[in-house]
Specification:
The chain is globular and about 65 Å long. The chain folds into two domains: 261 residues, no CATH class; 249 residues, no CATH class. The protein is an all-alpha fold. It is built from 21 helices and no strands.
Length: 543
């Protein structure tokens, strides 16, 4: 074969793998960044535990207190050791963060590309829908491999730090466990992209699966008798793995099976359905009584009602579950002298209030994720071209964005109040002494970070619209990870203060600081106003 023929053959081979290369290049940077975050969290946790608790007596004391937080981060195993504590503190939180990245990434790469019309261009070449989807999955796999490589390198480095002494093989297994959340929800998001009619609908389906997995794991860790339920949750499988101590490799089997089944079903559905078709119908295409569609806000409510109701239902279920478990958790907290003393220094006199303060910390994280989801939905309306259908009418783009921001703000506040109401319903039969008004106050307090995230997202929407979703989820993820790790790092208050959730009081365990809350809301509102002004001045940008 001469040189010309070889170059022609290479070009043909390159075209055959063009989709995989495109997906890998566009997603690997985010994957590597998150891999670095995961690895740095491991390093920070190891260093903080070794420095903060240098003696065995200190470590035994703190390990005894961790059982009270099993519902939040899982059952601690040998938490008096560096590997045991690191696995407990890091694994569940990182798996959830990776899962969020995975479902957003795969739905954007598959359903998002199809919604924007670029999938038609790719399929115009000599390829089939099934082979194009297979290449997209390969590209996502390459990005996942990049995440794993960076996570593994930093985790191995953490294991070699003084006082840690993780064997290399267990450090690598721990890295696999941390990245497995991203792997499973990349696959789940890919399957949802074949079932759903839009990217937002696909992300919502995958998000519901993630929320259900977390709730099942939470219930399983609430009582020893319910431990068998961990095998019903993808997050629970990874908890059962115990990657740094008492390894149970069998737990990787359902993880691998779930990824494989989702990928096979994704390819099967991709080959059988028509382009832009789906098993589920799109709400946008349904007829609706015209009397309700009197403006952009009512139209968004009609189109997004499934997504909004799904978030509210998830919040309500979590609040009911946490509320119903308050008494049993309180008994565990009361049995720990160190936790009782810590709560006393914070002004918390009742263990029930201390537990509910941690519960509403989780709700604050969830509401911040709701805000990030709303920013992504606003951007999706612009990127997909749906906004054009409104702007050709007598509606200004500024009025549209103000209406969308107001609707999102109202939904964030409603989610906070729902958390307060349903937590009260869960605790109402337990007579723990926390009234409905206090829980509603706690819900409003928990919605404050979400309002800030929304404002920051609109600011980025005006500056760099393609980065707004990543920025809002990034702010939330950073705040969560800093809250988990920063509490261990003594003398580094600046690190803890960089977390958005460190700026709100743990109501109802302590009274909300309404002055600080108002300041956070005003900063978020100012950011939103700047973003709206920038949005008015720039051109519409599509995907």
């Amino acid at each position: 074969m001469n040189a010309t023929s070889k170059r022609a053959a290479n070009r043909r081979a390159g075209r055959q793998w063009a989709i995989a290369v495109h997906i890998a290049r566009s997603r690997i940077r985010g994957a590597v960044i998150w891999g670095a975050v995961f690895g740095l969290v491991v390093i920070s946790t190891v260093k903080a535990f070794v420095v903060g608790y240098p003696t065995l007596a200190d470590r035994i004391q703190v390990a005894r207190s961790l059982q009270s937080f099993s519902m939040l981060l899982g059952i601690p195993h040998h938490a008096e050791t560096v590997p045991g504590f690191t696995s407990w503190r890091v694994l569940v939180a990182v798996v959830v963060m990776g899962a969020i990245w995975g479902l957003l990434t795969s739905t954007a790469a598959l359903r998002g590309e199809e919604d924007s019309g670029r999938w038609e261009v790719l399929l115009a070449g000599p390829t089939t829908k099934r082979w194009a989807t297979a290449q997209a999955l390969i590209g996502l796999g390459v990005a996942l491999a990049g995440m794993l490589a960076v996570t593994a390198a930093l985790t191995v480095a953490a294991g070699r730090m003084p006082g840690a002494h993780f064997p290399i093989e267990k450090s690598l297994l721990f890295s696999v466990a941390m990245v497995s959340g991203a792997a499973m929800f990349l696959a789940i998001g890919a399957l949802a992209s074949q079932i759903a009619a839009t990217r937002g609908q696909a992300a919502t389906i995958a998000g519901i699966v993630l929320a259900a997995s977390y709730v099942v794991r939470m219930v399983a860790d609430s009582r020893p008798s319910l431990g068998w339920m961990r095998w019903m949750s993808p997050i629970g499988w990874l908890e059962e793995l115990h990657p740094l101590q008492n390894v149970q490799l069998l737990a990787l089997a359902p993880v691998a099976a779930l990824v494989l089944i989702c990928c096979v079903l994704t390819l099967a559905l991709a080959g059988r359905r028509d382009l832009n078709e789906a098993l589920l119908h799109d709400d946008e295409g349904r007829a609706a009584p015209s009397r309700w569609l009197v403006g952009p806000v009512s139209l968004v409510l009609h189109v997004s009602r499934t997504n909004l109701l799904s978030w509210l239902a998830g919040a309500a279920i979590m609040a009911l579950v946490y509320g119903s478990l308050t008494r049993s958790a309180t008994s565990l907290l009361s049995g720990s002298p160190s936790i009782t003393a810590t709560l006393g220094r914070l002004g918390v006199k009742k263990s029930a209030e201390g537990f509910l303060g941690l519960v509403f910390f989780i709700f604050a994280i969830m509401i911040a994720l709701i805000a990030a989801n709303q920013v992504a939905a606003i951007r999706d309306e612009e990127a997909s071209g749906r906004l054009d259908n409104l702007l050709v009418r007598p509606l200004g783009r500024v009025a549209w964005l103000i209406d969308r921001a107001a609707l999102a703000t109202g939904f964030i506040v409603l989610a906070g109040l729902a958390c307060g109401l349903f937590t009260w319903l869960g605790t109402s039969e337990q007579r723990i002494g926390v009234t409905l008004p206090r829980l509603l106050e706690a819900g409003l307090n928990a919605s404050v970070p979400g309002i800030f995230v929304l404002g920051a997202g609109i600011l980025v929407l005006g500056l760099r619209p393609r980065s707004c979703a990543m920025a809002t989820y990034g702010i939330t993820a950073w705040s969560v990870l800093v809250s988990l790790v920063g509490s261990l790092v003594k003398g580094n208050s600046w690190l803890r203060d960089s977390s958005l959730f460190a700026q709100i009081a743990l109501a109802p365990s302590v009274s909300p600081d309404w002055g600080k809350d108002l300041m956070i809301v005003l900063i978020g509102g100012a950011a939103a106003l700047v973003g709206i002004a920038l949005f008015h001045r720039r051109d519409i940008e599509y995907s």
